[in-house]
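pinging the channel bc i need a second pair of eyes. not urgent but kinda urgent?? the chain im working w is below, pasted from the shared doc
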Amino acid sequence: MVAAKTIIEVTVVGKDRKGVVADITNHIFGNGGNIEKISQNVVRGLFGMQLEASFQHADHREFDRGLQELAKKLQMEIKVHYQEPDRPKNVALFVSKEPHCIERILQGRKKGEIKANLAVAVGSEPSLKPIADAAGIPFHSVAHADQAEAERNILQLIEKYNVDVIVLARYMRILTPNFVWRYPNRVINIHPSLLPAFPGAYAYVQAYERGAKIVGCTAHFVTEDLDQGPIISQNSFKVQQSDTLETIKKKGQELEAETLFEAVKLYLEGRLEVYWGKVHTKDHKPR
């Protein structure tokens, strides 16, 4: 029987310099790893690289120690994330004030519709802490007076809880490209319109005021370009003449919760693949 592979994701950030890619890849090869994916970019002298490697047998401590030595040598930030196939994925739920999306995910876990470890909830403010507390999920409120500092704090939490996927469950804050590009196809958002129409926080108001006949929502992976990431799933409903702004909001929020849950479920089942900027859904769960 062949042992299951361990997938290790390595993120490197720092001032651009020669030899970085060679040093990192040589360290992986020297520890018996195989490069699966690699991408890199340089913007205004800042170098960034995301790399995915597979190992049949991985000594986490030795591998991490070597990377930290490289971080000192290169004077760069190097982060490691492990994806062990035999454990449930660790999910971080990002929230603000609206509870409908986090409540649907909690309901899905309770019913056994999804298998995941809801590792941590991060709030832009503390309104939903009681919901997380009742579910036994550690809750951290991170103030956003200084966006850079807020994101540094959040990055520390993501590393602490070894998070596999970030779910923006109506998280009413914009994450900067410096944060988002570190987690390619690992941040899922729900947007309250059929993208690209009616972008922004007041999508239902715009739809109502302009007499939209169909209102919907979009679950998508987050990229550096706001609300332009690969679309995972979309749903919609017809607006009736009797609908008011409040009934449209209510129907929309119910649909948001279901659409986001559908996207998260597909991700956790390993049924999503992204290539050429488009999401492809596998018909069957991988064994």
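so The first strand starts at residue 6 and ends at 15. and Residues 6-83 form a domain with the Alpha-Beta Plaits fold (CATH 3.30.70.260). — does that match what u expected or am i reading it wrong
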